[in-house]
TrEMBL record:
Belongs to the D-isomer specific 2-hydroxyacid dehydrogenase family. Keywords: NAD, NADP, Oxidoreductase. InterPro entries: D-isomer_2-hydroxyacid_DH, D-isomer_2_OHA_DH_cat_dom, D-isomer_DH_NAD-bd, NAD(P)-bd_dom_sf. One of its GO terms (molecular function) is NAD binding. This is Dihydrofolate reductase. It comes from Deinococcus irradiatisoli. Residues 25-305 form the D-isomer specific 2-hydroxyacid dehydrogenase catalytic domain. It comes from the Bacteria. Gene3D superfamilies: NAD(P)-binding Rossmann-like Domain. GO terms for cellular component: cytosol. Residues 101-274 form the D-isomer specific 2-hydroxyacid dehydrogenase NAD-binding domain.
């Protein structure tokens, strides 16, 4: 369990005996002393539950993930040990899609630069600002047309943007054009939005070749996982101007963000905040609690993970 869900933590402490892992001076010693009594783990998609923790809890029955990311949970290993895993699907979709649009608008219209311009007195001194670029009517590509990708596509379409996508396979019935190769997709669009799943299967999927194809007027938006983008290649592309701009909610080694990224004006940075809304945290808490109560009552779980989901 991590302290990122205060709504949930308060309720858990009312209903259960909670061992706050993040507060432990010597977690291994606590697990040795208390591990046999632990029946459930509550965590989030970023922190997850390491294999060594799972193996230190011989009577563990369920891992409840507040979110949909499973990069930090070895679902196959958990299932082999008879441990069920749940997530909170659906509740984060709108917030993450909204964040993608916020980053796109901020990066394209250079909102942070304009904010600093006013705060630092540049407007009052008559200093000039560079022209920004329109979002409406541009061509957009989506990497990973899962539920979040589809929600982003609908928002992009509302801005009169043409939308294409890439993924493991073409999805029948979608109104968006499928492009099998991510480099080709990047070459054809003005904006590339990354909404794929993380993990080794997509590690550095967005590499130097993709960024070069996106080009000096292109914008990259990443609300997926930092591992999907080759961060060093991204920094080099932004610094050289071979990529126009980026909006990033995720990074390779969170919460560490390279100084090179912080120094650039053509990138908008967000602290993995796509789901940091009151509404999403309340919804997450509700589903996690419902799964926990079902587990301890011996009832079917509400949102079990049957296999590792991948974004389209």
């Amino acid at each position: 369990m991590t302290p990122r869900l205060p709504f949930l933590l308060d309720q858990l402490r009312r209903d259960f005996l909670v061992h706050a892992y993040w507060e432990m001076d010597d977690p291994a010693a606590v697990l040795r002393a208390e591990g046999r009594d632990v029946r459930a783990v509550v965590t989030n998609g970023v922190v997850g539950c390491p294999r060594e923790v799972v193996e230190a809890l011989p009577n563990l029955g369920v891992i409840c993930v507040g979110g949909v990311g499973l990069d930090a949970v070895d679902v196959t290993h958990a299932h082999q040990l008879g441990v069920q895993v749940t997530t909170t699907p659906g509740v984060l979709t709108a917030d993450v899609a909204d964040q993608a649009m916020a980053l796109l608008l901020a990066a394209s219209r250079q909102v942070p630069l304009g904010d600093r311009y006013i705060r630092q007195g540049g407007w009052g001194r008559g200093e000039d600002l560079p022209l920004t670029r329109r979002v409406s009517g541009k061509r957009a590509g989506i990497v990973g047309l899962g539920e979040i990708g589809k929600a982003i596509a609908r928002r992009l379409s509302a801005f009169d943007m043409s939308v294409a996508y890439t993924g493991r396979r073409e999805q029948p019935g979608q109104p968006y054009r499928f492009v099998a190769d991510v480099v080709e997709l990047a070459r054809e669009v003005d904006v590339l939005v990354v909404s794929s799943s993380g993990g080794e299967g997509t590690r550095h999927l967005i590499n130097a070749g993709v960024l070069e194809a996106l080009g000096p007027q292109g914008i990259l938006i990443n609300i997926a996982r930092g591992s999907v983008v080759d961060q060093e290649a991204l920094i080099a592309s932004l610094r050289s101007g071979s990529l126009g701009a980026a909006g990033l909610d995720v990074f390779a080694d969170e919460p560490q963000v390279p100084a090179e990224l912080k120094a650039l004006d053509n990138v908008v940075l967000s602290p993995h905040a796509a789901t940091r809304t009151t509404e999403s945290r309340q919804d997450i808490s509700r589903i996690v609690l419902a799964n926990l109560k079902a587990f301890f009552a011996g009832e079917p779980l509400l949102t079990p993970v049957t296999d590792r989901p991948l974004s389209g």
